[in-house]
Amino acid sequence: MTLRAVRTHYFHANASAIGGFIERPFVKNIPVQSPASLSPSGGSDEAATSAFQFEQIITAHATRSRVEGSFLGGLPTTRAMAAVEGLNVLDTIRADELVAYISTQHPAEDLDVPKVDLSRTVISGLRIGEAILRVHLNLKFLSDGNGKGFPKRPYLLEKSLWKKADKKYDPDKGILVCTLVEKIEIVRGKLPAKIVDTNIIEIPNIGRMHLAEFVVTGKSLQLIMMRLELGCPVVGSSSASATQVNGGGYP
């Protein structure tokens, strides 16, 4: 009998395409679309839906997700992807495609900090009203030295990331809320909204839209391509294309 000559690795990943809740004008959960989760031993899971419609508030042509975990080249590798195609929120916010993608590869020894790949992450065809937007993303957000080696310390301790975190960041809390967005460009039309931060747009009679939020803790990475804080007349919260990975190895 042959046993793998590396320490035990516990895989963890989940993905969802759409989900949330509405508080007004009625109370109702938005059913999670295309949920997928990974077993501690790896493997894969995937889901897909088509023609999603929720109470004339949110629609999507299609959603899909996939998570997988395995050993590649002897190293534990996890991938998580969630995608939404043809998103429409209250006939005001539209997106051709939102894709959240995270891939991590862990070393076979301490310090157990993974390399991170975000390269397949996408925001395309974003429109608010008649305005067409282009969202510029930094997909090399967590550099590992040009791929030549694994990070030398946990990402949460990187001061370069602290500068990208929200203004309420407190190192003692052990969480960084950042964004992959570098710039929101108005390509065509007049924007019936206000860009209030690097990745946040405030839309009258809709609420606030957060784009490409990246949440870093000591043991997990979460990417949310669109998170909506809905205000009057519809009140609630919703997210589109979200993935999370963590996991780790033990002697």
What do you see in this structure?
The chain has 251 residues and is an all-beta fold. The chain has one domain. Helix content is 2%, strand content 60%. It has one helix and 20 strands. The strands form three sheets. Strands 2, 3, 4, 13, 15, 16, 17, 18 and 19 form a nine-stranded antiparallel sheet that branches. Strands 5, 6, 7, 8, 9, 10, 11, 12 and 14 form a nine-stranded antiparallel sheet that branches. The chain has a two-stranded antiparallel sheet with strand order 1-20. β18 and β19 form a beta hairpin. The protein is globular, with a radius of gyration of 19 Å.
Question: Could you give the topology of this structure?
Answer:
Layout: E1 8-10, E2 13-24, E3 28-33, E4 36-37, E5 43-54, E6 58-72, E7 75-89, E8 93-105, E9 115-117, E10 122-124, E11 126-128, E12 131-137, H1 159-162, E13 175-179, E14 181-188, E15 194-197, E16 200-203, E17 207-217, E18 221-230, E19 235-245, E20 248-250
Antiparallel strand pairs: 1-20, 2-3, 2-4, 2-19, 5-6, 6-7, 7-8, 8-9, 8-10, 8-11, 11-12, 12-14, 13-17, 15-16, 16-17, 17-18, 18-19
